[in-house]
């Protein structure tokens, strides 16, 4: 076993206890497996929000290095595709994070398919979030393309992502994180000390102008702490 790593059985028990404690979801059909700190969640929940909560709860547990999502959304009662479509259209129209005129959608068997072209990755993710949080939706396929209004070089994007990360107070040691960009697709590598830091670095990249995709390969290290200040 890796020095300092928590045993998988303790991680499993902590996750199961946390899921059972959390009143925001029904964990009765959620299964948890852990291998060398990597958590795999499977089973079913009633809503996307419950799925999100389960993933967040798993990331909170000490010793977790990664979380693999295998949870399926299975609503208690089916809804007509036309009703789901109407709800999503209205939600997109009310969402000031994006211009709904740039998003096309279709619903088939409670599965939503998004397409179209938007200017930022944040808009693409907002549209997907709106679809997922609509009652009755069981899956979302997001084919929306990101086409920034101003073309930026990968060097500019990399510099801005690194700058954003370096000034983020949520991240203890930003020198452990590297960011590279290829045609606007950013990859984050390195180590952080917690799931919160991993998420913070990804947010910094996602909201950087010119970024069309983020691949988060950051791992959570054991025993990392804030560097001393002389």
Outline the structure in words:
The protein is an alpha/beta fold. It folds into 3 domains: 8-73, Histidine-containing Protein, Chain: A (2-Layer Sandwich), CATH 3.30.1340; 81-146, Fe-S cluster assembly (FSCA) (GMP Synthetase, Chain A, domain 3, 2-Layer Sandwich); 154-220, Histidine-containing Protein, Chain: A (2-Layer Sandwich), CATH 3.30.1340. Helix content is 34%, strand content 27%. The chain is built from 6 helices and 11 strands. The chain has helices spanning 8-21, 48-60, 81-94, 121-132, 154-166, 195-206; strands at residues 30-35, 38-45, 66-73, 103-108, 111-118, 139-142, 145-146, 177-182, 185-192, 213-216, 219-220. The strands form 3 sheets. Strands 4, 5, 6 and 7 form a 4-stranded mixed sheet that branches. Strands 8, 9, 10 and 11 form a 4-stranded mixed sheet that branches. Strand 9 (185-192), helix 6 (195-206) and strand 10 form a beta-alpha-beta unit. Helix 5 (154-166) crosses helix 6. The longest helix has 14 residues, at 8-21. The radius of gyration is 19 Å and the shape is flat. 29% of the residues are buried.
